[in-house]
Design a protein that fits this description.
The chain is mainly α. It has a single domain, classed as Arc Repressor Mutant, subunit A, CATH 1.10.10.10. The protein contains 5 helices and 2 strands. The chain has a two-stranded antiparallel sheet with strand order 1-2. Helix 2 (29-37) crosses helix 4. The model has no long low-confidence stretch (mean pLDDT 93).
Length: 96
């Protein structure tokens, strides 16, 4: 039976923050999009994350391109959270 994108990409509350991810993994579409935007080819992404398949990477990229505004906003929110937490961490270390 032929597979559709819904067989590859799922969202589950409580798993990777409910973000779209590759089914059966904790690899988010955000992660694949970030690697892709850094210039990695789908084949290179599979080499870097060997427990996923090329078909799964292409499904994640298809989802990313079809929902680019949503995924980009999610990536920006993750980066802002990371930056804020890192700043708080270093401020606590400096004041200790």
């Amino acid at each position: 039976m032929a597979k559709g994108i819904g067989d590859f990409i799922v969202s589950t509350p409580g798993t990777v923050g409910g973000r779209p991810r590759i089914n059966g993994t904790r690899v988010s579409v955000n992660t694949i999009a970030i690697w892709y935007k850094k210039g990695y080819t789908p084949e290179e992404i599979v080499l870097g994350i060997p427990h996923i398949s090329l078909a799964q990477v292409y499904a994640a990229l298809t989802y990313y391109h079809a929902n680019q505004d949503e995924i980009e906003a999610s990536i920006r929110a993750e980066e802002e959270l990371h930056d804020r937490l890192a700043k708080e961490h270093y401020q606590r270390r400096e004041s200790a």
